[in-house]
Amino acid sequence: MLRTLFSPRLVGLHLLTVGVLVAFILLGRWQLGVFQDSGRPRTSTDPAPAAVETLSRVGAQIQGTAVGRRVSAEGVYDAAKQLLVADRRPDVDAPGGNVSRDKGYWVLTPLRLSDGTLIPVVRGWTATADGAAAAVPQGKVSVTGRLRPQQSTDSVQGRAEGLPAGQVQTVSTGELVNLWQGEKLRNGFVVAQPPSGALAQVKVSPPIVGGEFTWRNLAYAANWWIFAGFAVFMWFHFVRDAVRSDRDEAEPSKAAPENVMEG
């Protein structure tokens, strides 16, 4: 049997089978990697700023694809309605590359657009509530930044009740409608980039798109591994037939001397 297994014709078959197995397994792993990469969240291409009126509407939720998008707006800040969002971090790079962990305030000022509606704008971050750094620009301004959906108030309702006048705990459209009564308020808010005046930048990420799994690549990976299994089956089939064939040829030659002696 060993002589048959290591015969030149079967050694070539062994080497061919090993090469096929390695190739098919690697091809299957490659297709599996493509499948896994397809499902990973990725940062989308950051398009040019869109007019905030096209992505944020009165009484309508912001679409998921608009979250984090760069937007632009022109209008006049309503200084009388400015608020401070308490207990907030700046999330900007401090000197030396360290991220500041000090809590302070987001400065939230409504921007009145040409149609009379308001869009809340987080103009930046300040460490204190004295208002010195939060002076509101006068006259018509142009603002660029990233659009964010309104924040939930459920988990902070208890803390919000103890805040001083002029402060809120979150940027919630529902709460702002009650505070700015009689105004038409667009949903969500804009984080200004760059910040206004001497305020620090509030960090906000670009839109993140969740990848969609390409199930076709997973099927391709399975196919390559099935082919590898079939190659092993065919190798076993050929080797078994070769061993049987050599065994059958050897048996008559062993029986012939015995027959001669008996005669």
Which terms would index this structure?
single chain; 263 residues; alpha/beta; 5-stranded mixed beta barrel; two-stranded antiparallel ribbon; 10 strands
Detailed description of the structure:
This protein has 263 residues and is of the alpha/beta class. It folds into two domains: 2-39 and 212-262; 43-209, no CATH class. The protein is built from six helices and ten strands. The chain has helices spanning 2-5, 8-38, 52-55, 157-160, 173-179, 215-262; strands spanning 42-43, 50-51, 70-77, 83-88, 104-112, 118-126, 140-148, 167-168, 189-192, 208-209. A five-stranded mixed barrel has the order 3-5-6-9-7. A two-stranded antiparallel sheet has the order 1-10.
The overall pLDDT, averaged over residues, is 81
Helix content: 25-40%
- Our Rg estimate from Cα atoms comes to 36 Å
Q: Work out the oligomeric state of the chains in this entry.
A: single chain
> Care to count the β-strands?
10
SS content category: alpha/beta
Please state the overall shape, judged from the principal axes of the Cα atoms.
Answer: rod-shaped
Number of helices: 6
Stretches where pLDDT is under 50 for at least 5 consecutive residues are: 92-100, 155-159
Run of helices and strands: HHEEHEEEEEHEHEEH
Domain module count = 2
Spatially, the strands of the biggest sheet line up as: 3-5-6-9-7
